[in-house]
Amino acid sequence: MSQSTLIDSLSKLVSENRNPETMDIDTLSCLEIVEKMNQADAEVPRAIQKELPHIAKAVEVICGAFQQGGRLIYLGAGTSGRLGVLDASECPPTFSVDDNVVIGLIAGGKEAMFRAQEGAEDSLTLAEQDLKQLNLSDKDVIVGIAASGRTPYVIGALNYANTVGAYTVSLSCNPDSAIACLAKTAISPVVGPEVLTGSTRLKAGTAQKLVLNMLSTASMIKLGKAYQNLMVDVKPSNEKLNARAVRIIMQATECSEQQAEKVLFDADMQVKLAIMMQLTGQNKQQAQQQLEQQKGFIRG
Which of 95, 118, 142, 237 has its CA 20 to 30 A from that of 69? Predict the structure, then answer.
């Protein structure tokens, strides 16, 4: 693509337009700058609200994929890719899922997490190679993330995923984007021009982070990873998480700290199992059998 063609393409994107509210931002005080940014950020939840039906549809599909042994695979370049990797990396400690259940891919690989590999996003074939290494199948769900909605790396990923039969979801901040046209479900919160023109790590990045929070968290809740509003499958892998696990058991069962510590130990440090044992008075084997019968849902 020639530079003139690319400039013309960018000029048509809402996310690349100039924000009329911040034309004088370089003359403002520090307080005035952050006030402008805060006012702009307030537009993000309103944009996401319009997309909630599409987000809910994606959650339903993701839950179905998990139940069939499929995976949720986030894929993007730059900030978008980093946000996907971040959300994926938080799922194992928060919900005790294996590392390969929610996966984040970023154009340029692991090095791109810490140092920009901007050229990697221009490849239409690199994502296909990355997905082939994961043995992408029709059980999986791909979420292609690109603020502009035109990133070649993400376009290539969605094209390949469609040929494999994987379910495709797009997340962009421009209406009727290229990736939205390729995806079975398109999530497009249009947050408008950035405070700093073209810096889509700002409002667009915030919108993407909020949507990814919803996709993973709502999916895990629907899979029984929560009891009431407690994350009962948390993995107590350090002192803070161990204390949180004890507190969750106390909150769920109204028992003492000492009781919570004991039942957590008896449950081999499995919070959900400990709660079940404490609530029912059953031993570990009985409680485990009950949970299996209810597919991991304590409320069952």
Answer: 237
Percent of the chain with pLDDT over 70: 95
Instruction: Tell me if residue 257 is catalytic.
Output: no
Beta strands in the chain (DSSP E): 72-76, 102-106, 141-145, 167-171, 185-187
User: pLDDT band at 8, cuts 50/70/90?
Assistant: low
Segment 40-54 shows an average pLDDT of 97
239-273 confidence digits (pLDDT tens) = 998 999 999 999 999 999 999 999 999 999 999 99
Per residue in 121-156, pLDDT (tens digit) is 778 899 999 999 999 999 999 999 999 999 999 999
**Euclidean distance between CA atoms 17 and 8, whole angstroms:** 12
Could you say which DSSP state residue 18 is in? P
Which residues lie closer than 8 Å to 204 by C-beta, 6 or more apart? 15, 147, 173, 191, 194
90 is catalytic: yes
Which of 16, 121, 128, 194 does the annotation list as catalytic? 121
Q: Could you tell me the sign of the dihedral formed by the alpha carbons of 43, 47, 48, 50, in that order?
A: positive
Q: What is the rounded CA–CA span in Å between residue 190 and residue 54?
A: 14
Nearest residue to 187 (alpha-carbon basis) of 165, 162, 204, 164: 204
**Is 148 within 8 Å of 69 (Cβ atoms)?**
no
Q: Please tell me which residue in 90, 111, 128, 254 is annotated as part of the active site.
A: 90
Go through 8-46 and write b for each residue having 16 or more CB atoms within 10 A of its CB, e for each that does not.
eeeeebbbbeebeebeeeeeeeeeebeebbeebeebbee
Question: Quick check: 11 pLDDT over 90?
Answer: no
pTM for the whole structure: 0.90
